[in-house]
Structures are given as structure tokens and as C-alpha cells.
Request: fold
Amino acid sequence: MAAYLLRRLLLVVPTLLGIILINFAIVQFAPGGPVEQMIAELKGQAGSTLGRISGESQGETRAPQRSEGGGEGSRYRGAQGLDPAVVREIEKAFGFDKPWYVRLWDMLSGYARFDLGRSLFSDRPVAGLILEKMPVSVSLGLWSTLIIYLVSIPLGIQKAVRDGSRFDVATSAAVLVGYAIPGFLFAILLVVLFAGGSFLQWFPLRGLISPGMGEAPFWERALDYAWHMVLPTLALVIGGFAGLTMLTKNSFLEEIHKQYVVTARAKGAGETRVLYGHVFRNAMLLIIAGFPAAFIGILFTGALLVEIIFSLDGLGLLGFEAAIRRDYPVMFGTLYIFTLLGLVMQIVGDFAYTLVDPRIDFEARR
Reply:
């Protein structure tokens, strides 16, 4: 097992490198980079200044004049276009005065030291931004995944045991209805019903802590944190029950009808011992295999709209804003962390295989 884990860890490096290279190549062809974004902002600021000055002026009205390099009646550089020297300064400040291969090498060498660079627009270290937003996304991902597994696995087992009963049909209808409702739509519904939208105001709408709770005792802060987490977590988990519940049910149904279960029952083993002593170990393999993907999915991709609706400043919102503004260091820094964490979680999932069923030997695979 140790040799297998070592090989998997060594494969993380080329996998991570390949993902970064592919995304770097795609970004080179994407229109509207950070330099263009900054030029557009500067032109917009100059244009708004021109409009304000023109609006405040009460002097004589002049006939439109056409100036070289600009629009009609324009005497301001913001309306005529930026000075090429200014554009070169922007490119130098953003590092785009260097060839692409130099920028790529600088980025990869920094990542090897876990130096993720600085944001182009906020001028803050990317690692600091990620660490600042991490608690929100980790809180949502951890509690959502934990609740989904704690509910879905026992529910799936009971559905398998009572297959075809009214309980099975009713719970299947309930989880499928929940699956059909998008998480963000359910979040809006929760806000309207319970966060002061139109009916009740039982839960807060913004952030993870209430104002003034920083100096409160630990137990008060813990209760306040849990109070803030109820609605966002519920919005994320409502659609996550269906897949895992049905997977658990089908896995247990497949194992229940196998010969070793019939033999165990024939030997006089009780139903609980058969179910949890024999079936559970084999049926849980598929569930464990899907845990890393489920956790990473909820942690980094499923929470974006929920974070926006509940005004939670997390990694989802950070990545979305970075993509909109073409903040490449933040985009690639978050991609690097997300991918690295995802690859490590896959290795953790393989290790969990052996904990559930020690008969699995990855070294024996050819």
C-alpha cells in the first residue's frame, strides 16, 4: 500500500502540470485580458469625467469640432484613446511585457514554492485571499457533505431493506422532488420564507457571524455561527440527497441478493448482523469512491450562487469575480489549489477503500 500511495503522489505532479498548461493555453486565446480590462476602466473613468465637466459647464455652446485621433468635439485624452506609453506601463505592471513562456515559467516556479503571486486588481497575495475566503467555503462544504452522508446512507439502507414498500415509494418521490429543485432556487425560497423576505425572519441573511459577536464567549459565537449556517447549508443539501440515497439503495440491493448473504442467513445470523456485518462492507465501496468528488463538488462549485444569495464571501465568489475581471493570478491560484486538493482527496478515497475492506490490495492490480 505504501508503494501504491507513493506512486499516486508522484503522479500528482504531472497531472497538476498538465491541467495548468491546458488552462494557460486556453487563456492565451481568450479575448479581453486584464490589460484590456484596465484600459476599458480607464477609458470609462475618463469618459465619465468628460461628461461631468460638460454637464457642469454653462458657457457658450460651440459647434462640434473633429480633432485628430479622437471623436467629435473631443479635447480629452480619455475620449481620444490612451497614450501608448500608458498602455505599455499597464502591460509592464501586469507582467504582459514578457513573452508567454517567461510568464509561464515564472508562474510554475512560484507554484513550486507555493507562491501564488499577487492579484492584478486588488494587489494582495493570492494565497492570502484564498485563506481569507476559505472558512466560508469549507464551512458550507463540510457541513453539507456531512449532513448528506448522515441522512442518505441510513435512508438508502432502509429503502433497500423495504424495497417496494410505501416507505420506499414515498421517500423516492421526496428525494427526487428535492433533486429537481435547483439549489439557488431553493435558497431564494428559504430567504423569502425564513430570512425576512416576505413572511418570517427567523434566520440572518448575511455573513457567518452577527455584528458585535467577536468578543462574545465561545459558546455564544458557536451558536451564532450555527444560526447563520442553517439556511445556506439547507439550500445545498436539499438536492444532494437523491443521488447518494439511490446509489446506497442500489448498492445494498445488489449485495443483499448475493449468495454469501443467503449463506449467512442460513447459518442463523440475525438480520442486523447480516446487513451491517456482511453487506455493509461491500456495498459501501461505491459510496466511498464517490466521497472525494462529492466533497470537492460541494466545496468549490456548488456553493457559488448560494454564496451570492446569502452574501457569503467565499471561494466560489472569489473565483467568479476573478474570471469576470480576468484576474489571472487569482484564477490560476485557485485552480492550482482546487486541483491539488482534488487529487489528494482521490488518494484519500483510495486509502479509505482499504479501511472499509482490508481485502482490497492495490499492489496486486496489474
Summary: The mean pLDDT is 75. The CA atoms of residues 264 and 270 lie 9 Å apart. The two ends are 14 Å apart (CA to CA). Residues 135-326+347-364 form a domain with the MetI-like fold fold (CATH 1.10.3720.10).
